[in-house]
């Protein structure tokens, strides 16, 4: 059995072996280089030696993962993503093909025919309604790809998976917030049952985009600076990119907590909780210094309708969704 | 005498005209009302028998055969010593 976090920025596979959990992480990015002459093709191929890349039938080279981002930065360009805001990108022509290739490589062949695999999908966003966001289609694509690998795939909500991974000590009651690159997913859980799930379409990528516009840099450059982590949310920074990143982080957290409060206030499906709730936060975007402190302050200021016991970060923020999927694969 | 007759004819003509007009108005409004009810009924009938087409996008074949792999290993592997058996058994019990 396996769990698979199909994220906008990372794809993470989780498998259990000898009472240990094995994770395989892969950066969900690609960068295409099209040689103009046969000589150039040979030169490029030689130059890419040691990097993770594939050669397409039209002669172009497609760098994958971290190497794609590094190459894009080298060329003052931005790497492409097979996914956009939590689902297969409708903007990229090659998105489905590249995503299928990456997923087949990361998940590998099933160890036995119809091995169970649980993967995560985002919830319907509360702040976007258009044809580009089609969770059903995204789910069907992932199922098709995983079935070809011999798996028996099943999907669950991303934040629901986070709750399975992190709320064991709270009788699976509380709130899970997964702050990924493309989206923020929320699940309110009562005794292992998801009662309210929703998402917002602004998260880490939005910070990159807005900071890139503000500073005139490429998104990939901003992303790389941001991930180096030399900044604290709410504190000024000498580096103009990180200064912009810090400001946009504050705005994102404010936006997320306002949406959280608004979505849960007077929600018909919200149970009446007897005790204050634990909120658990995970995902790459939540790893910035000062995130938890600023989030806690912001949720207090934005009229959150439920009593809170504690707000904590997941023990392993990058792997908790995949771990939750793995747990679900053995229960559901 | 003739003047009295004229007055009577005028009053009678007015009453007849008034009654005719009133009846015609009722007929017309009844017609509109009936039409409205009928329209409403027919639209209700339509909703009862509305047929939906499945507009979900079809996943066509995703061909990755033309992509030639040029590396040995993909991704980063990590091993976590965490034991998830407690989480699994607790979730199983709670979901019963």
Write a structural description.
- The complex is a heterodimer of chains A (332) and B (96).
- Chain A is of the alpha/beta class.
- Chain A has a domain at 166-320: ATPase, nucleotide binding domain (Nucleotidyltransferase, domain 5, 2-Layer Sandwich).
- Chain A is built from ten helices and 15 strands.
- In chain A, the strands form four sheets. Chain A has a five-stranded mixed β-sheet.
- In chain A, helix 3 packs across helix 4, helix 5 (158-166) crosses helix 10 and helix 8 packs across helix 9 (291-301).
- The model of chain A has no long low-confidence stretch (mean pLDDT 94).
- Chain A binds chain B through residues 13, 16, 19-26, 45, 48, 51-58, 62, 64-65, 96-97, 100-102, 104-106, 134, 136-137, 140-141, 144-145, 164-165, 168, 171-172, 191-192, 315-316, 319, 323, 326-327, 330-332, and chain B through 56-57, 59, 62-64, 66-71, 74-88, 90-92, 94-95.
- Strand 5 of chain A pairs antiparallel with strand 1 (68-69) of chain B.
Highlighted features:
heterodimer, A: 332 residues, alpha/beta, Nucleotidyltransferase, domain 5, 5-stranded mixed beta sheet, B: 96 residues, mainly alpha, 2 helices, 60% helix, 7% strand
Whole-Å distance between the termini of chain B? Answer: 104 Å
The rough form of chain A would be described as: globular
Class of the domain at 166-320 in chain A, according to the CATH hierarchy?
A: Alpha Beta
Seen as an oligomer or otherwise, the chain set is heterodimer
Order of helices and strands of chain A: EEEEHEEHEEHEHEHEEEHHHEHEH
Pair with the biggest interface: A-B, 54 and 32 residues
Q: Residue ranges of chain B: pLDDT <50 for 5 or more in a row?
A: 29-41
Strand portion of chain B, in percent? 5-15%
Structural class of chain B: mainly alpha
Distance between the termini of chain A: 12 Å
Number of helices of chain B: 2
**Sequence of strands across the biggest β-sheet of chain A:** 3-2-1-9-10
Number of helices of chain A: 10
Order of helices and strands of chain B: HEEH
Helix content of chain B: 55-70%
How many β strands of chain B by DSSP? Answer: 2
CATH topological fold name of the domain at 166-320 in chain A: Nucleotidyltransferase, domain 5
Helical fraction of chain A: 25-40%
Q: How large a portion of the residues of chain A is in β-strands, by DSSP E?
A: 25-35%
Q: Based on DSSP secondary structure assignment, what is the total number of beta strands of chain A?
A: 15
Shape of chain B: elongated
